[in-house]
Amino acid sequence: MVSSQEAAIMEREYQKWFSPNLNRYMEMLVFGREGVPVIFFPTRAAHFYDLENWRIIDAMREKITSGEVQVFCVDSIDEESFYSNKPPRERILRHLQYERYILNEVIPFVKQRNKEKQLAVAGCSLGGYHAVNIGLKNPKIFNKIVGMSARYDLTKPLPFFADLFDGYFDENIYFNMPNHFVPRISDKKLLKQLRNLDITLAIGQDDSFLPDNKRLSDSLNAIGVPHNLFIWEEEAHRPRYWREMVKLYL
C-alpha cells in the first residue's frame, strides 16, 4: 500500500508504442501504481484521455491513490472498425485486430507493470460493449467485468442507432455480439469459468440500450452465470452518471 503522503498524489503516466497488431501507434494513460488493474475502454470514437477529461478518473481518485485499483485507459479505433466506411466484413476484421492488440500487447504490458493476479475490464457506452465482449470471451484472463450504458448487439437497429454492419452477418460478427453467442454457450468448462466472474451491467431506465441489457441478463441467468444488473433512473448515459457508477462498481 502507498503511504499517506504518497496517497495525496494520483500518479499519472503516458504510454505510446507502435502496435504490430494494428500497424499504427497506440496511446494509453495509466493512473496509480498498484492495486487491481482495470483496463478501461473509452466511449464510441472517444480516446484514452476522455475518461480523465470527463472527471471519471477523478471520481476514482480515492481508490487509485489508496492502491485499491490501477487504471489503464486504452485508446479506441472505432472509427476504423465499426464506424468506418469499409465493407462490413472488413469492419469486424479490424475490430478483431483491435482485440488482439488488447490481448497480446496491452495485457502483457499490464502484467509486466502490475503483479496482481486479478484483472478487471470496464467501459461506458461502446466501451462497455468492448469490456463485456472481450471479458465474456476470455473468462480465464479476467476476473471482473463492468459494462455501463452499453449495447450488446451492434447488428440490431434501434431509434437513433443503426445496424453497424448494414445487414451483413458472418461468424466473426456472431462471436462478437454477446446477445448472439451467450445464449448458446454450453461448454461445461467455459460455463464454470464464466460463473467465477464478477459481472456488473448498469443501464438507465430510459436508455435505448435497456432491452439489450435485459436480454443479456436473461441469457446469463439461463446459462446459470451470476451477475448484477443495475437499472438507474433516467437515461443515465452521460459522464455525470458514469462518475457515480465507477465509485460503486469498480
Automatic annotation (TrEMBL):
It comes from the Bacteria. InterPro entries: AB_hydrolase_fold (IPR029058), Esterase-like (IPR000801), Mycobacterial_A85_antigen (IPR050583). It holds the Pfam family Esterase. This is Esterase/lipase superfamily enzyme.
